[in-house]
Design goal:
Helices cover 35% and strands 21% of the residues. It is an alpha/beta fold and 614 residues long. The protein starts with a strand and ends in an 18-residue tail after the last helix. The chain binds 2-deoxy-2-amino glucitol-6-phosphate.
Length: 614
């Protein structure tokens, strides 16, 4: 939540920062703002509520020549989405500018002494007081880097803070406090960047350094000095990131979401590459630090995540149980940490998070770390915080995902979990050769099967035109399709603002059935598997109550023709991997309905891509 970008070097900082903000807009779009040093080393500040286009119209060619500055795109926590609450925030003399991501829990207490001194705050944010505090420190002769460090030490909560000061144009100081909000420094030739995430830096450099919680970076065009919490200088490596900058642009697609849906054959290809091997058929997951003996010693696995990542974890539970014969449970990370979970060093904890920065997931991982649990994280973002807490990372290999709604990262995470289940199953001696063969062949066929699923798009668009006016939907599934029913409902809510409920189909008659009438359509996932007949009964029950049904069925299954109102037939696929295809068709359905309704598909209201507040 909230995007941060900063630049110092020789090139026009204003344009670089505005371009960076465009790439970060998916992190929050309640307001945007920029602070630059003009030729006289005075601060030029522009801020506007709403999307970045509003900021750009406000600036209207008045961007001063500048070689350093900072920018921010906001997801509001304290204070409404107004111009005054937009970042950057300044001290009363207008000499220090600050942008911030996260929450300062004790901001009211920090504000009080200034109010008592008769100073007025111009915003309702928790951020503005940081500028006041930093300016006070500088006034007292403290160096900017030390001033930022002293100030963040007084804050409670977790945050990423970036500050500049008129006394030293060309210098930017960034601090990371706790788990909220990553900070990544980009290294160019005689220029440096700072950002909340990698996507903003990709057009300029792939040479980056990530800040850990508690660290501070003192950034100048030619060098960066890092400090730990105690103020000692730290040596930190420069890493070269593999992401392709072209992947972060929309290209010929109308929306990032559609582009990312269409990229899923490639996501699947990248996810199986080097992991699913033939002759003999086996699965090898890279870089797992556990010996076969340790893996055999695991007695249980707990999977955690939020939103779509939790739905992936629910699919993963089936794989861990089926292939590795490990008792597996799934929990919403935000609930898990407050439940006094029973954990021990034989409990394997698997977290799923595309961003790797979701605060609830990080907090749950911290809890698991305290209990001494071995941890694997499934992540899409190189170098993200989850990857640094876990003992091992299995990457989703989806490339940058810009649309707020997760699509290709879901597919990447389900394949990663499938591979992990098979890998652990082999090490535990729980996997027979036939299962291994079937699953490897099934996974290798996925890129083609996803490609075929995408051919359903015109048919889905036609359904979307007929169903877009409904205000309530029910999604039903059983077994491996249950998490996809939850996902279908989440995706529809998220991008089209239609009320949707996802249920395990067996639960329907215990309450949700009361909702069904001709105004509430049901999307029923009724693939040919061991629960198909039960799904059929559920569909009949819906029909008996005048509900409309869209059934998602297997390739050549005609048994629901004439019963369901509409049928979407998925291509042939290994049944264990069917959630991947179901996910794709659900994504298309939500996307097309949202487009029909004229919704802001890539940036749905109130949401943000990375959720760094509790
Ligand atoms: C999915 O479409 C949502 N944007 C959301 O539920 C997301 O999956 C959730 O916030 C978790 O994010 P993470 O994978 O980065 O942890």
């Amino acid at each position: 939540m909230c995007g941060i970008i900063g630049y110092t070097g020789q090139r026009p900082a204003g344009q670089i920062i505005l371009d960076g903000l465009r790439r970060l807009e998916y992190r929050g779009y309640d307001s945007a703002g920029i602070a630059l040093f003009d030729a006289n080393h005075e601060l030029y500040v522009a801020r506007a509520a709403g999307k970045i286009d509003n900021l750009i119209s406000k600036i209207e060619g008045s961007l001063p020549p500048a070689v350093s500055g900072i920018g921010h795109t906001r997801w509001a926590t304290h204070g409404a989405a107004t111009d005054l609450n937009a970042h950057p925030h300044l001290d009363p003399a207008g000499r220090v500018a600050v942008v911030h991501n996260g929450i300062i829990e004790n901001f009211e207490a920090l504000r009080r002494p200034f109010v008592e001194r008769g100073l007025a705050f111009s915003s309702d944010t928790d951020t503005e007081v940081l500028a006041f505090l930093i300016a006070d420190e500088i006034q007292a002769g403290v160096d900017l880097a030390r001033a930022v460090q002293n100030v963040v030490a007084q804050t409670q909560g977790a945050a990423a803070v970036v500050a500049i000061c008129c006394d030293e144009p060309g210098r930017i100081v960034a601090a990371r406090v706790g788990n909220a909000g990553g900070i990544v420094i980009g290294h160019g030739d005689g220029e440096r960047f700072v950002a909340s995430d990698l996507a903003a830096l990709l057009p300029h450099t792939r040479r980056v350094t990530f800040l850990e919680p508690g660290e501070v970076a003192d950034i100048r065009p030619d060098e960066v000095t890092y400090y730990d919490t105690a103020g000692h200088v730290l040596a930190k490596p420069v890493e070269t990131q593999p992401w392709d900058p072209v992947a972060a642009v929309k290209g010929r697609y109308k929306h990032f979401m559609l582009k990312e849906i269409h990229e899923q054959p490639d996501t699947a290809l990248d996810s199986v590459r080097g992991r699913y091997l033939t002759a003999p058929h086996r699965v090898e997951v890279e870089d797992l630090p556990f010996t076969a003996e340790q893996v055999r010693d695991f007695n249980r696995v707990v999977l955690i995540g939020m939103g779509t990542s939790m739905h992936a974890a629910m699919v993963g539970r089936h794989y861990l149980e089926r292939y590795a014969r490990l008792p597996a449970e799934v929990d919403n990370a935000a609930e898990f940490r407050y439940r006094s979970p029973v954990l021990d060093p034989r409990t394997l904890v698997i977290s799923v998070a595309q961003s790797g920065e979701t605060i609830d997931t990080l907090a749950a991982m911290d809890e698991a770390r305290r209990a001494g649990c071995p941890q694997i994280t499934i992540c899409n973002t190189p170098g993200a915080q989850t990857t640094r807490i876990a003992d091992a990372t299995v990457y989703m290999r989806a490339g940058p995902e810009i649309a707020v709604a997760s699509t290709k990262t879901l597919v990447g995470s389900m394949i990663a979990l499938h591979a992990l289940g098979l890998h652990l199953g082999r090490l535990r001696g729980a996997l027979d050769a036939e299962t291994s063969r079937r699953q490897v062949e099934g996974a290798l066929h996925l890129p083609a099967a996803i490609g075929e699923t995408l051919l359903l798009e015109p048919r889905v668009a036609e359904l979307a035109a007929r169903y877009a006016a409904y205000e309530d939907f029910l999604f039903l599934g059983r077994g491996l399709s249950y998490p996809m029913a939850l996902e279908g409902a989440l995706k529809l809510k998220e991008v089209s603002y239609i009320h949707a409920e996802g249920y395990a189909a067996g639960e329907m008659k215990h309450g949700p059935i009361a909702l069904i009438d001709e105004r509430m359509p049901t999307v029923a996932i009724a693939l040919r598997d061991e629960v198909r007949d039960k799904m059929r009964s559920n569909i009949e029950q819906v029909k008996a109550r005048r509900g409309r049904v869209i059934a998602i069925v297997s390739a050549d299954d005609v048994s629901l023709d004439g019963i369901a109102d509409d049928v979407l037939r998925l291509p042939e696929v290994e049944p264990d991997l069917s959630p991947v295809l179901t996910a794709v068709v659900m994504q298309l359905l939500s996307y097309e309905i949202a487009v029909e309704r004229g919704a802001d598909v890539d940036q749905p209201r109130n949401l943000a891509k990375t959720v760094t507040v509790e």
